[in-house]
Amino acid sequence: xxDLSTTIAGVRFPSCFMNAAGALCVTRDELxxxxxxxxxxxxxxxxxxxxxxxxxxxxxxxFPGGSINSMGLPNLGYQAYAELIPDLKRYGKPVIASxxxxxxxxxxxxxxxxxxxxxxxxxxxxxxxxxxxxxxIGYDPDASERVIKRVRSLxxxxxxxxxxxxxxxxxxxxxxKVIGRHxxxxxxxxxxxxxxxxxxxxREAVVIKPKGxxxxxxxxxxxxxxxxxxxxxxxxxxxxxxxxGTGGVVDGVDAFEHxxxxxxxxxxxxxxxxxxxxxxxxxxxxxxxxxxxxxxRSLADCLGTVKEL
Length: 309
Ligand code: SIN
Hints:
With about 300 residues, the protein is of the alpha/beta class. The chain has one domain (about 5-55, about 75-190, about 220-300): Aldolase class I (TIM Barrel), CATH 3.20.20.70. The protein is about 35% helix and about 20% strand. It is built from 9 helices and 16 strands. It has helices spanning about 30-35, 80-90, 105-115, 140-150, 170-180, 225-235, 250-260, 270-275, 280-295, and strands spanning about 5-10, 10-15, 15-20, 40-45, 60-65, 65-70, 95-100, 120-125, 160-165, 185-190, 195, 200, 205, 215-220, 245, 265-270. It has an 8-stranded parallel sheet. A 4-stranded antiparallel sheet has the order 5-6-14-11, with no helix packed on it. Strands 1-2 form a two-stranded antiparallel ribbon. About 50% of the residues are buried. The site of succinic acid (SIN) has 14 residues, from loops.
């Protein structure tokens, strides 16, 4: 039997598939459903200090090949997640708390209280593209470093960063230097490809309301960008920092490609929203089939081994 379990920063995941922060993980009911599903972990919605309704609707639109969203961080507020986390740990799978913020001061406020609730890991989200007037922190190395410094000493569970897509090796290098200075335990990439625009030619209109229709792209269309970022950071750190690959995973082969590029685990967003929780069991079967066909008994056998020509 092919082993789809994985270990990230010393934490064992029964399967390498989990939800991306944002996909079906805002409310208590959604988080419990993830616990009861075939997911290998429960990832919370990225939380802010105050509860948020998020951006005006429509704010998500699926189309063949992908999706665009501008949710605007709808969430229950960190206090509510701090109360939920101990209960979510009863499902025998890791709980990852995703921490966001509307300003730099928010991050340490949330990190201290969430760390006290002892999720198994904390992801610091530097990459939400959907808050009007708030640029993605991850595109500013100095701001990223300030935020990382302020939370690093407060977080005692494994701490990771959720990164935006970068499009130039110079950016992988400069962010690699920032990340390398602060003892980051894992990385998660990529967040949605920010500020895309989808137009419906029949209605001659954009398809989501916030920000004049601009939003984060997800789904299969972003897979090459996700794979490139996984590969680039795997090489920057020579595999020393485990990576969760996110972006464009629709089937088991997509997940296999992420693993080949260096992802120790895989998150799903668009496909989870479109298909529901059954996606986890389908993906596990498909990935197990691919690995077995190729003679691999575990993810470790092919982690980061993609060949260059
Ligand atoms: C959102 O809530 O707008 C998406 C969250 C994110 O991209 O980090």
